[in-house]
Amino acid sequence: MDLSSINPLILLASIMVASTPILLAAIGEMVCEKSGVLNLGVEGMMITGAVCGFVVAVETGSPAIGFVAAALGGAVLSLLFGILTQYLLSNQVATGLALTLFGLGLSALIGQGYVGIKAPVTADVNIPLLSDIPVIGRIVFQHDLMVYFSIALIAGVWAFLKFTRAGLVLRAVGESHDAAHALGYQVVLIRLLAIMFGGACAGLGGAYVSLIRVPQWTEGMTAGAGWIALAIVVFASWRPWRVLIGAYLFGGVTVLQLNLQAAGVAIPVEYLSMSPYLITILVLVIMSANRSRAALGAPAALGRVFHASH
Amino acid sequence: MLTLEKRPSPSRMWTLLTPPLAVVLTMIAGGILFAFLGKNPVESIRTIFWDPVFGEFAFYYRGQLLVKAAPLILIAIGLSLGFRAGIWNIGAEGQYIVGAICGAGIGLAFYPTENPLIFPLMIFAGALGGWAWAMIPATLKVMFGTNEILVSLMLVYVAESMLASVSSSLLRNPEGMGFPGSRNFKDFPAAHNDYLIESAGIHWGVVAAFIAVIFAYVLLSRHILGFQIRVTGQSPRAARFAGVNPSRLILFCLGTSGALAGMAGMFEVTGPAGQISIDFNSGYGFTAIIVAFLGRLHPVGILLAGLLMALTYIGGEAAQSTLGLPAAAIQLLQGMLLFFLLAVDVLTNFRIRFGKTEAA
Amino acid sequence: MDNDETLLAVEGVTKAYPGVIANDKVSFSVTPGEVHALLGENGAGKSTLVKMIYGLVRPDSGRMLWKGAPYEPATPHAARSTGVAMVFQHFSLFEALNVAENVALGMEDPPPMRQLSERIRKVSETYGLPLDPDRLVGELSAGERQRVEIIRCLLQDPKLLIMDEPTSVLTPQEVLILFETLRKLSHEGTAILYISHKLEEIRSLCDSATILRLGKVVGTTNPRESSARELAEMMVGQTLHTPSRDSADLGDVVLELTNLSVKSSNPFGTSLKAVSLSVQAGEVLGIGGVAGNGQDELLAALSGESLAPRGAVKLKGQEIGHLGPNARRALGLLAAPEERLGHAAAPDMSLTENAALTGTIRRNLAKNGFINWSATEDFANEIIKAFDVRTPGPHNAARSLSGGNLQKFVIGREVLQQPDLLVVNQPTWGVDASAAADIRQALLDIAARGAAVICISQDLDELMEISDRFAALNEGRLTSPRPAKTLTVDEIGLMMGGAHDMEVAHVDA
Predict the structure, then answer these.
(1) Is B137 within 8 Å of B201 (Cβ atoms)?
(2) Does the CA dihedral C61-C66-C69-C71 come out positive or negative?
(3) Which of B30, B114, C215, C289 is deepest in the core (most CB within 10 A)?
(4) Domain ranges of chain C
């Protein structure tokens, strides 16, 4: 065992990379849940995004186009969920599960000719001046664009929800669809848009795994990241900046256990690799122990079916 | 534009008709998918849905049908109890694995003793293992209100890591020349879940599945506990008013589904699978979710849905070998089935009308 | 009619839903500054009519004119830009958002939040409706919530203000304040369309009234010149019998609450604070109060849905605070909650199954945990017959029944189980007049047979009609009960408003 082989600086840098997929998926799901829709299909949308992004990036040679394709793929898949839950009024829990099962199958089918190929390399952005800062510069300011994009997205969602009228309407729809409908807001349309935003974000998160983090395509490679993203939304009490904290915390755990594995700690590999999931459970328990809904900030209409009768 | 109009009472006709309709739609969509993959759609669909039962080699496949259907039915029956009450156990795969590990572990501990009590003990251990694994999300939900969907699912990944661990250390075959995986139960008659009627594919797991169907049917239609489960799923407040104790119901539903999934895992590992190995689980726990919904959460429906889903497994394998259809296409077909079912389900509670909409 | 002066004219408007014609060639008109009442029973078509004016529903035929020009609002946004504003009875506020955000959501072109808060303060002071723009709506009382809705409307300078049953959530004193505000608005030239089924209110406030029955206009009158009785008969279309009772001697104390405090399970609910009362056999205790002052919580604490310390609830001398609903049923305490669909009954289940919901214990419908479905169906049929529930049969789903019929089923289910104490919450809410009369009679009948009845209601007329004693809930506290016969409206208002100390002095004296 050689713990000294773990370089804390590289560790920090790799946390940012490891956290980005969950961060993207979680912020998308948060917006979706804020509109009152619980989409349990994050895992399915992520893996679909991962395969779409990978295939398109390999075919075009451009990771950027790959990311766009991933966002599209995730959004299209989420639209399926949207039509089922918003127009055909199906149960959101069951439909979300179906989306995950469907996405896993679909991605395996699309990706079958692409196993073992390497993805085109995504360039790191060197932010001038900032990346020249000794030590910190290299860790924080020398990543690929998506890392910064994901953080900007958090800020964007935060500002959108807090300061814009559209954000207010979105929150209102998630709070009470009946009241929003009575005031003349188009509940179904607003929710569909939120669902598709969630799908696009999950798709980007998936593509980040297949194009940058691994970067390869293997079946089921998101390995529960979508479910962890769902847990992070609960952890974050539906607040954007806490989503960032949550995602980086989980990224940290993942990276740390990988490093411990590499360093040959005397704990069997299997127990280290189950640690992120156990910690997710622990965090969920801590968050839910505080039961009042107001304190948790969950949208009141979350998961409820809306049908404008008269 | 189409508008939906709520029916005064749920339609009995559509309750029965939606699953077959979903199957037909899936066949059509699947055919189109296979055509895109360059296969003959009619031949593919026939290979998957028809040949295993009526084709040339049906005598072999028909036996396989029960073998594949039994774990699906056993797990889905348990899941359906919870789903009916709005308690979402998504982690049956984990409970299945833990049940298999516990059942197999107890059996292997007695190797090579031959005693007729060993197998019943293993069944009990398997059920207990699955039960205990499901009690984790149940207890956390009761005590802290933790979301059981996420916890039970996280525990699948934990169970998979445990499986990897025990198959390469604790339960590894000491005579296996270092390869991961346990002893094969075929070589250990007292612990082997052998066929009772080989040609029909009946082993103890199939018997257990049929018992579970009958048990669930009586519970849901006659017993007050089943009634409470149904009320809770439809309107939790009315259930509380009717004196239902939600915590007890959570513990019962999750516990039962865990025990059944654990039993299914134990029957599988000591029978068809033969040994504990790192990848012995094959997603039955997740497919059972589809089975439960396709069977409309009704015991008899689940029995039929389990057989249908087993058919897609067997037919899918046949289509892989004879037509070169990719395995993923079958998985996709199963996912599609659930989607179509959820989509056409709207007909049960709503009438579709053509005409102008309200407040566009 | 002088068209130049007419603000809104509705001409021959018809709207049909499958199986029911909600509005059948309805016509009426409103002039600026007029307070116009739309009077009708539940289900008479009032709501559909105003939803059409507010752009939520479109008429099948007929037309509407605004200042003589065709008026066809496609959405509430269009209606609001024309100058129509609406105060809803339910469902238009967001509990987790603050007052200013709620107001902004109902405006077409809201100013920035800081300015909006200023304007809310100003308008609320001008009209005597104080409000803090930064508070969460979930923390406000029912009366304050209504202020939010009214101010949201006022900020848009409406030409026509629609008010849907606005007084059902107010104390008598608050009603007076509201009427002042409305009169002031009407003097400033705003037309008000006032929907209600409360006749006295309409007679004191409105200049004209259009009366609807089963979707049709059955008359237009000046309500000040008609008696309440005339209006009622036009509205209902028949002469109603007033519930009557044989006065029974009061028996032993059936229920006793001592300092019952229960925390609400709803984050925005009202917790019960040291509630004490006692009810005797043969007595009807009426509990009034404005919505959201602990009514649901009191029912839950009595039915056993929420538990309390053992001794806080005593039934016939036995401590039952720790017992759940079924144990209390076995002892003779039955209840019927306010929300019919989803609380008192499971909407998608058949009437037979709904009969089993509360009936298994006292009617012996289950043996060793197995339900006897044929006996249960007999029980359901018995309820249907005894309470004249209009339904094709016990196999129909609860949600297929009209509000009045389902309520009769729910009350009948409990009454036929021979309770020693029956607790009901809003027994006639949203129920047509003849069903309401039947239900009140049933409550009086079981009291006459020697049961104790606690009737929680927001309908003061109902409480005065059937109660022997009256108490009021205010912010989770209960006033001491007083004999109903001697109470004046002012006294009731004070009790509902929370003047507790005075009441204690009275009763102790």
Answers:
(1) no
(2) negative
(3) C289
(4) 8-236, 253-508
Residue matched to tokens 């594919």 = B201
Contact B115, B279 (CB under 8 A): no
Mean of pLDDT over chain B: 89
Q: Specify whether domain B38-325 bears CATH 3.30.30.
A: no
What interface predicted TM-score (ipTM) does this complex get?
A: 0.86
CATH architecture entry for C253-508: 3-Layer(aba) Sandwich (3.40)
Report chain C residues whose CB lies below 8 A from the CB of B353. Answer: 18
Contacts of A171 in chain C (CB under 8 A): 94, 96-97
Q: Is B153 in CB contact (< 8 Å) with chain A?
A: yes
Residues of chain A scoring pLDDT < 70: 1-6, 126-131, 134-142, 291-296, 308-310
Contact yes or no for A294 and C17 at CB 8 A: no
Q: What are phi and psi of B112, to 5 degrees?
A: -105, 35
Contact B238 C343 (CB under 8 A): yes
Enumerate residues 6+ apart whose C-beta is below 8 A from C312: C257, C258, C259, C260, C261, C321
pLDDT tens digit string along A150-209? 999 999 999 999 999 999 999 999 999 989 988 889 999 999 999 999 999 999 999 999
Would you call A68 helix, strand, or coil by DSSP? helix
Domain ranges of chain B: 38-325
Q: Which residues contact C76 (CB under 8 A, 6 or more apart)?
A: A182, A183, A184, C54, C55, C56, C86
Distances in whole angstroms, Cα of residue B25 to Cα of each of A47, A92, B52, B303, C235: 25, 21, 20, 21, 53
Closest by CA position to B278, among listed B165, B200, B177, B194: B165
Q: Between chains, do A294 and C267 touch, taking CB under 8 Å as contact?
A: yes
Cis check: omega of the bond before B112, within 30 degrees of 0: yes
Contacts of residue B217 in chain C, CB cutoff 8 Å? Answer: none
CA angle C196-C202-C205, nearest 5°? 125
Residue C369 is inside which H or E element, if any?
none
Q: Report yes or no: B286 and A101 within 8 Å, Cβ to Cβ.
A: yes
* Residue B308 to residue B330: CA distance in whole angstroms: 13
The answer to whether C59 faces chain A, any CB pair under 8 Å, is: no
User: The domain at C8-236 falls in which architecture?
Assistant: 3-Layer(aba) Sandwich (3.40)
Q: Give all domains of chain A, ordered by start, each with its CATH number.
A: 3-120+146-296 (1.10.3470)
**A177 contacts on C by Cβ (under 8 Å):** none
pLDDT digits (tens, 9 = 90+) for A107-117: 999 988 888 88
